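Researcher: Re-running this chain for the archive, since the previous output was lost when a drive failed. Same request as before.
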Amino acid sequence: MKKYILYSSLFASIIPILSHADTVNVHVLSATVKDQNIANAEVILQKNGERSASSSTNTSGRASVNSNTTDNSDNLLIIKKSGYSTLVAKCPCDGMTYALSPVLKDLNSMRIVLNWGQNPLDLDSHLSYKNQHVYWDSKQGLAANLDVDDTDSYGPETVTIDKRLEGQYYVYSVHDFSDRTQPTTTNLSNSQAKVMVYAGESLIRSYYIPTGQAGNLWTVFRISPEGEIQDINRISGTTVNASQVGSTVSNYQNQTTRVNIIPVSADAQKRAKALNLSADKAYQNNQIEQAAMLYQQSIDYNPNVGQTYSNLAVAYQKLNRSSEALWANQKAIALATNNNTKAYSHYNMGKIYENNQDYAQAKQHYQLANQYKPSATYNEAIQRVSQ
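Model: Regenerated structure tokens:
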């Protein structure tokens, strides 16, 4: 049953973190264990690709980072700890709670983490797929579950897909439970909500709530049967019960429902291009980890450039991050405008599956590579995994 917050606990949960103009205060929790503080995590503020200040979390999971820069969208917050995926988030960051995701082991696993600000009190994660609906009143689904349900501001709310089911569309959405009877509310849009998607040991996609829009349901993205994450990023209004949220967005589980590419501003395109050039330079200097992070930041500004995903996939493969490389290659294929890119990406996916001894999947991708661009190399690969 959904928990309702008593006023006594409400006041305890919304006491703001006081800060100075040049200090950023953050709270770091586990994404998978409710209310577990993460100590000894490195917290870094970065501006223009350069470290400006850093600190570490204490036993209460809190860190104060003193910086000469203003806490605004020009800054990035980076949180690192061994055994967890590195978190990268756009600022403003002061007073916010962030959740670190433990590294995922399965090639086809994903984790989705929702955080938000002080208001509304209760935002809920919903994952719908194949007659399944994972949310606070149905936490365990087929190969997916709600790890953490938060009802008193900030989050996290965490959904883990243990292994994606073949042939299924997954739809992820955020429901403003606090304003469930108010379809024209702007509280969700003003909540500072952000959704982080993880694969392997990396943060692969970040979503920030659209501002200035009315509604209490944020349909964030869907995952295609091939593993492509398709942006939806749409706010709408509804008065349905929480149990009906899955059916409200069920049209996105249908292949005939197309998800259009979301246009980005000229400024965002300019920032993405600059980050992409910096990533290329880092890669050429054999700074592969830095290159991957910069390509990822470029995608946050402009997620519509196939070459960026292709470059990111190569960087991930250099870092032996197979899950992340699979996702990046799949997105590169979806956005590719020529068969060479499609062939190259399918071939790389085939190599990943072959190295993981999944020869059926490897063969499928090698065949697709050869279909897009016939090659002796691709034929040899097909023969190798067919033995």
